[in-house]
Amino acid sequence: MYIPMKSKKDREVIYLLSEFLVAFMWIRIYFLVRSVFNYSIYTDAYSMKLCKSYGFSANVGFTFKCHIVTNPGWTVIILFSSTIIILSYILRIFEMPYFRMAEDEWGQFDDYFMSIWCITITLTTVGYGDLVPSTKPGQYIAIITALWGAFLISLLVTIVQNVFQPDQK
Prior knowledge:
Elements: E1 2-6, E2 12-16, H1 17-24, H2 28-38, H3 45-54, H4 60-70, H5 72-101, H6 112-123, H7 136-164
């Protein structure tokens, strides 16, 4: 099944349904992470009882906060790395049909590293503008990346601030 979409310069890009399904399959990562968080040391019977006594539940959000407090560096590194790898792959899926059919373009997203470069620059909110998505799905991925990057950068600033803050007793 073919899905036509308009792109930059009013070119029509034709996607296969399988390309959307491959991009959609990355949502399984969410279920994997949720399963890991639900079966961690922060969601055992004692933690659930303790959380219930203070009026909140030991869920994925609680486990994530516990990981941020106990291992802030590793948590942010893993979050940044997995975000870059996953979103780069999805961006490359959506951008390759455009650059394969365009004869005057220099094949910006044929190389996976170029997708990593684009996502990293967008994620860190630098935005050089040397490499931009040309299709609508690619632009949506860039928007999601920029919003998620603002959250990750603020998380990183908060963690660095907590590291350098003297202990208040």
